[in-house]
Amino acid sequence: MVTDACRNEGFLLNGKTVRKLMKELGISSLIRVKKYRSYKGEQGRICDNLLKRQFDAERPNEKWVTDATEFKMNGKKLYLSPIMDLYNGEIIAYNLATRPLPSMVQTMLTDALKQLPKDEHPILRSDSNNADVSFYHHSVCRLTGLV
């Protein structure tokens, strides 16, 4: 906010420079918003990497991939969690949220499963260091036959 206030007054200063100057003057902000970083430890169980970097598929619903990503739009952070079919790059389902909560992934998985034919059981690959890896995610995969 201080950096924004400086810019509004015509001073073009980097955020790090503003923090350095504030520290030198003994001024501190009440809250410093930290960039979102997904959990880096082992969360739940880590599944075998069945894709082994083979990101091509011979038929629809053979291989799905998912990941969560953060981006800014109109000055606000948004989190996108899609599922993509590697056969044709089609986005099967997605969810957009203002916070990276498990419910974001739950909604996305539920929407994807509604479109999946009963006899299809794709391999679902998720980056193991993001919000997608959760108890709900693994439970849904196990119950529905997703590998």
TrEMBL record:
Per the UniProt record, the source organism is Salmonella enterica (Salmonella choleraesuis)
Q: Where is the signal peptide?
A: none
Which residues does the UniProt record annotate as the domain Integrase catalytic? 56-147
- Gene3D superfamilies, per the entry: Ribonuclease H-like superfamily/Ribonuclease H (3.30.420.10)
Q: Name one Pfam family in it.
A: rve
Q: PROSITE patterns, alphabetically?
A: INTEGRASE
Tell me which domain of life the UniProt entry assigns to the organism this sequence originates from: Bacteria
Q: What is this protein called?
A: DDE-type integrase/transposase/recombinase
SUPFAM superfamilies (UniProt xref)? Ribonuclease H-like (SSF53098)
User: Which GO BP terms sit in this record?
Assistant: DNA integration
Annotated GO molecular function terms are: nucleic acid binding
